[in-house]
Amino acid sequence: MVSSYNQELETTEGYNGRQLLELIQNCDDEGAEKVLITLNEESQTLHIANTGKAFSIKGYRSIITSNLSPKDDKKKFIGNKGLGFRSIVYWANEIQIHSNDILLTFSDDIREKGYNKLFSPEERAIIEREYSIKKGITPVPILAIPRIQEVENSSEFTTTISIKYKEEFLSDIHDQVEQLRPEILLFLHHIERISFVGFEDVKDLTCKKKSLSTDEKFGPSETVQVNEQHWQIFTKEGKINGSGSEDDSGYYQLKLAVSESMNTDYPYLFTYFPTKIELDFPYIIHGTFDLDQTRNTLNKTARNEKVLQELVAFIVDTAKFYTNDEVSWRPFQLLHFDESSKID
Fold it and tell me: In whole angstroms, what is the distance from residue 135 CA to residue 176 CA?
């Protein structure tokens, strides 16, 4: 119990600044095509609703007990054992999950009552002494003990996450919404629209994807229109040489998103979502890299080295593809790289 409590504290700190991205990723994991983000400043509530699959028993369990994510697709590449969801604890006085006509509510008051019910005053004193718990601290993860109610859902959205946020985090919420660029939809599996209510001057994000047949020849795997911009997506997937692993760690996925203008003003390396690694290519790179806890920088691992090697060959192959076009500078543009933006 105390270990899980400490892990929740570490996770909320590590994922801070990416709360909305993590919730959007969870929506995409469940096959949602639509996501609605609603802010009600009067009630200090943020709602994230989606049209994906409703919560399963395993899904509820992964929220209440960390590291038990029910992701079954070994090559799905996305997700982090439900840990990202815990990032919203940092903002919240209260969290609600409404799915399957069931409403789960988590709060400090609920976990304190649950803790006091589980342990006598004498037992609590022993726990606090043995683990150096400060007075006034309840050493139970806030997501471990929910209040459960049956509440009918009449909305088109199958699941709604509601966060009663602490007032000091309102500006943080606005900042994260304003940072949601259309490009975040490029590499997700399902989401076609993210709509916003309660935010001024924030436009909805839309995405239309069309799969392409390459007839076993190298070429774009799909075209994507994100808001008004058109992209060609090149994809490379495979197994990392020498890996006998049957989980995600034994496989990699790479994608290059090349716009019609052969240019982008969003020069970040993506692992589904943008990291803080800036590159100077005229296209966007996505790869299933091992990231640190903040999900912003690469870990120095043998797996990442292998994926980066594959990326170099992939960029060259993509440049060669464009030599099939009429004579142009496009292949050379693809190979352009500013030495100052290299990945350490």
Answer: 34
